[in-house]
Amino acid sequence: MGMPVPLWARGQEWNLGQKARFISAVWSGGDLGSYLTNDWYESESGGRALAENSEILIDGQQRLHSLEEYLLDRLAVPDAQGQPRIWSELGNGERKRFLSTIFTHVRVSSGDEVALRRTYDLCAQGVVPRSFDQRAAR
User: Origin, by domain of life (predicted)?
Assistant: First the structure.
């Protein structure tokens, strides 16, 4: 959804079923958790260039990607009658209800890549544990 993902983060891992279950959770009004980004950081060279880890997505990549897939009609999710529907098939009232769901954006502010990698690893502790090769801080 337009946010840079660091090279040390895992790739797109969720399958279609996991993506559809997340979108169904949005529809059910469940708690979606949050997504975490790092603030804008100036490079140490003193210019107005972004530092390497500025505005990166630290946590929430799978959920944000699922939302993007759904909103771009690349993911059909069963409606209340069990019929798979894509975003463009929904009426304005349904869209408004979906878009009113709260998905909290949390920010950290750090230029320390090691600390950001540790934060990334900690974010998955209670959800879907990352395998050793998917951890950023090894």
Answer: Bacteria
By C-alpha distance, which of 48, 46, 25, 53 is closest to 118? 53
What is the rounded distance in angstroms from the CA atom of residue 76 to the CA atom of residue 28? 16
DSSP 55: T
Q: At what angle do helices 61-71 and 16-28 cross, to 10 degrees?
A: 80
Q: What are the structural domain ranges in the chain? A: 16-126
Q: In what order do the strands lie in the sheet with 104-108?
A: 57-59, 34-38, 104-108
12-55 pLDDT per residue, tens:
999 999 999 999 999 999 889 899 999 987 666 665 556 788 88
